[in-house]
Amino acid sequence: MSPSVCLQEMIRVIRGARTQGEERGVIQRECAAIRAQFRQADSGGRSHNLAKLLYVHMLGYPAHFGQMECVRLIASSKYSEKRIGYLGAMMLLDEKQDASLLITNSIKNDLSHSSQHVQSLALCTLACMGSAEMCRDLAPEIERLLKASNSYIKKKAALCAVHIVRKIPELGEMFTPSAHSLLSEKNHGVLHGAVILITELCERNPDNLKQFRKSVPELVQIMKNLVTSGYSPEHNVAGISDPFLQVRILRLLRILGRNNDAASDAMNDLLAQVYSTSKSITTGISFPFHSIHSIYGLYTLYMVKRIGTFLLIIEFSYISMTSLQKIVQTDHTAVQRHRGTIVDCLKDQDASVKRRALELSLALVSAANIRSMMKELLLFLSTCPPELRSHAASGIFNAAERYAPSQRWHIDTILHVLVTAGGDVRDETVPNLIQLITAASELHCYTVHKLYRALISDIVQQSLVQVACWCIGEYGDLLLKGECEEITPMQVTEDDVLDALETVLQSHMSTPTSRGFALTAIMKLSTRITNNVDRIRSVVSIYGSCIDVELQQRAVEYNALFKKYDHMRYFTMSYCTVILEFGCRSRLSLVLGY
Amino acid sequence: MIKAILIFNNHGKPRLSKFYEHYTEDTEQQIIRETFHLVSKRDENVCNFLEGGMLIGGSDNKLIYRHYATLYFVFCVDSSESELGILDLIQVFVETLDKCFENVCELDLIFHVDKVHNILAEMVMGGMVLETNMNEIITQVDAQNKMEKSEAGIAGAPARAVSAVKNMNLPEMPKNINIGDISIKVPNLPSFK
After folding, report:
1. 8 Å CB contact between A271 and A302
2. pLDDT of residue A593
3. Chain A residues closer than 8 Å to B20 by CB
4. Do B131 and A319 lie within an 8 Å CB cutoff?
5. What is the pLDDT of residue B15?
6. Sorted alphabetically, which keywords does the UniProt record give (chain A) (predicted)?
7. Which of B133, B145, B151 to substitute to test the interface with A, most A CBs within 10 Å?
8. Choosing among B15, B19, B36, B46, which should be mutated to test the A contact, i.e. which has the most A CBs within 10 A?
9. Are strands B49-51 and B128-129 parallel, antiparallel or unpaired?
10. Quick one: closest CA in B to A121, which residue?
11. A64: which residues sit within 8 A by CB, 6+ positions away?
12. For residues B90 and A40, what is the distance between their CA atoms, to the nearest angstrom?
């Protein structure tokens, strides 16, 4: 391949490579040739070489040796070389490279070039990768260009100014007067740039808000012209005249009108007009949403109704839910009327829509609708994608805690979540649940029966297993008594209970924490049951030589309890009133003196 | 603000990658791979908006994409941009490419990456939307191309024309062109005084 072959030829050769290794070889040879060419400072074909290098860079191969070449090409006098040089600068250089400072002077010269195309290249590069120092040096130039007579340059200078303001907010004052005057332009591109500049200035510095509120009448006038103007083919998108510009202006009006009655009043008529033109869905799509966003302070109910109809269309359901999320904090009741549709969106196939629907549903839960919402949310939990599970579970717990209509319902809900998604709940769920159960003293019988049933059917969900073991240990006597008011009790013998706990101890699915819970539960049962104390004694002594250190320590302590401190056993193993995870053991430590 | 604009095909090969924030080369390639991974899993009839991956912008980041035949056009934006507006913008971009390349297809994008960059530079600058009027964009791009061509001289001409001129064997061309004996009747003009 001859060195000055053009870009297309190289691409053809690269595409001809049949394996990844072959491609790499081709590219390495090509890069070596390009590097040699750069060193020679050969003037013919330089732009071709840089173009080839940029292509190689896009494919992911290192191209940093082209940085100095970019600087050289930018300084050239030929337009074609400048063009590829600036493109290279945007792709290869950034603020951290020293080479970027070297192009500051070239950019400065090019900003005063006679050809508008060269000026635009410089502006574009400055806006894309200008560092703070470059921006500071060149800000006066940009300010001068904002007043240029050429609208093509003006619009680019406006966006460049936005970049400068982002990098160095203090320089915003320099651009404020020019920004005002740009609003009187006719060219849509310039207006667009001006509105973005003013939005950025207002967001950075609240003082600017006061200044730009004076421009509200002008902005309203521009909007009116756009809304009522006849068909203009160049700016028309789906029947709306320049929706991009309209959306930008509406957003700016929203910022200016926030918390300010005078400005909001000036906008009132306009926004009503805009809202009425946005009624038909088929014309334009982004436009109605932003009109809705802006006027939400004034027309909440209408707007929310409109959003409701949008919810039914798949493209819009995502966006409408995003908008509703923003409103729901301030105006809860208005969004409630769409609860049905939102809950249906939970069943949608689209994962993004499901996520939005989940957040919105959690925000809409209230004391009035807790039972029905919880049913839907629990149904969702069983079918939801794994990445949303833990979010859904914690949301459900929060909602249950705030609005639970009864303790029994609360416990049932938490148990249901543990059965469905026990692996995705947070760690503090277990002690929280234990605390809850202890507090609900009249439900002990019911709870222990339910948990026992869950335990014997499945021991995969560790949080459930832990809570069940603890409960059986504490209230085992209620379980064995075999009578319960709230639920038809199973007839359980002591052997059954001990079998269940031993299964947990021995199963390879149990984590060490669960085993600890099970062992403590077995020990506690020694004071609740009468016939199988020997069985318990033997189990405990077996675990005295277990590999797991934690388990071994417990077993040894319990063994000691049996042997030397049998009289203390009843005391230490009685009902827990202190809600610590290892409440019994701390009492034990007190007794044994360590 | 638009963080990045990516075009890749159905197999994940990048056809255009423009980043408006700085990332290292490795991160850029990772972003392209991750984006492809997220976008290719999407079904045809779900909405065009995705919560983005963690690499580019974190939680404030959205991916807005459109799938045309063999190409995915993906714009990574943050929350300050209107999602539906960006969808419209992608449409305008593709229509502009169609006008500039005459029935654009993937091969055009492969072999003329620099031209696509130039067109994109007229639409999006520094992560912000610059111009959405298709005619205006095309006018500017044409003017720039003309400027380039005028500088290039003979080297800018198509390759076949150049080789034809080079192969033209001037010495061999006949010096005396004999067109045979044609009797041309010359009218009898009066003498001018």
Report:
1. no
2. 42
3. 128
4. no
5. 92
6. Cytoplasmic vesicle, Golgi apparatus, Membrane, Protein transport, Transport
7. B133
8. B46
9. unpaired
10. B121
11. A92
12. 42
- Could you tell me if A592 and A557 are in contact, meaning their C-beta atoms sit under 8 angstroms apart? yes
CA separation for the pair A166, B128 (Å, rounded) = 12
The tens digit of pLDDT for each residue in B33-70 reads 989 988 888 887 777 888 766 666 667 788 899 998 89
Which chain A residues are closer than 8 Å to B50 by Cβ? 352
**A234/B29 touch (CB, cutoff 8 Å), yes or no:** no
- Write down the pLDDT at residue B138: 92
| Cα distances (Å, whole numbers) of residue A404 to A225, A282, A555 | 54, 44, 39
User: Which residue's entry shows tokens 């964009």?
Assistant: B137
Taking the Cβ of residue A156 and every Cβ of chain B, the question of whether any pair is shorter than 8 Å is answered with yes
Contact B85 A188 (CB under 8 A): no
pLDDT, residue A230, reads 59
Q: At a CB cut-off of 8 Å and minimum separation 6, what does B154 contact?
A: B162, B165
Most A CBs within 10 A among B94, B123, B130, hence the mutation to make, goes to B130
Confidence band (pLDDT; 50, 70, 90) for A582?
Answer: very low
Instruction: Annotate A351-365 with DSSP letters as a single string.
Output: HHHHHHHHHHHHHH-
| Average pLDDT in chain A | 79
- The answer, for B157 touching chain A at a CB cutoff of 8 Å, is no
Query: In the block, which residue shows the tokens 């044409």?
Result: B142
Answer whether A313 touches B (CB < 8 Å).
no
**Strands B14-19 and B49-51: what pairing?**
unpaired
* Number of structural domains found in chain B: 1
Query: Which of A15, A235, A350 is facing B47, going by the closest CB pair?
Result: A350
Q: For residue B72, what is the domain's CATH number?
A: 3.30.450.60
Q: Is A163 on the interface with B (CB under 8 A)?
A: yes
What is the average per-residue pLDDT within B105-119? 91
Q: Which of B16, B114, B144 sits opposite A84 (nearest CB)?
A: B114
* DSSP-assigned letters across all residues of A483-535: --SSSPPP---HHHHHHHHHHHHH-TT--HHHHHHHHHHHHHHHHH-SS-HHH
Of B28, B47, B130, the CB nearest to A353: B47
Q: Give the pair of three-digit tokens for residue B21.
A: 């924030």
Q: Are B15 and B31 in contact (CB under 8 A)?
A: no
pLDDT of residue A329: 73
- In this structure, what token pair is assigned to residue A268? 């009132």
* The Cα angle at residue B124 between residues B119 and B126, in degrees rounded to 5: 125
Across A309-331, b (16+ Cβ under 10 Å) vs e yields ebbeebbbbbbbbbbbeebbeee
pLDDT band at B95 (very low <50, low <70, confident <90, very high): very high
User: B183 lies in a domain?
Assistant: no
**A464-478, B119-133, B134-148: least confidently modelled range:** A464-478
Q: Is residue B137 part of a domain?
A: yes
| Among A418, A518, A507, A521, CA closest to A475 | A521
Scanning B49-186, the segments in alpha helix (DSSP H) are: 83-101, 106-111, 113-123, 134-152, 159-167
Contacts of B162 (CB under 8 A, 6+ apart): B154, B155
B154 in a structural domain: no
**Contact list, B43 vs chain A (CB under 8 Å):** 349-350
Say yes or no: A254 contacts chain B, CB-CB below 8 A: no
Report in angstroms the alpha-carbon separations of A346 from A305, A338, A361, A378. 20, 13, 9, 11
Q: Which domain holds residue B133?
A: 2-144
Would residue B58 be called left, alpha or beta, if left means φ above 0 and alpha means ψ between -120 and 50 degrees?
A: left
- B174 in a structural domain: no
Contacts of A355 in chain B (CB under 8 A): 51
Chain A residues lying within 8 Å of B27, measured CB to CB = none
What is this model's ipTM? 0.78
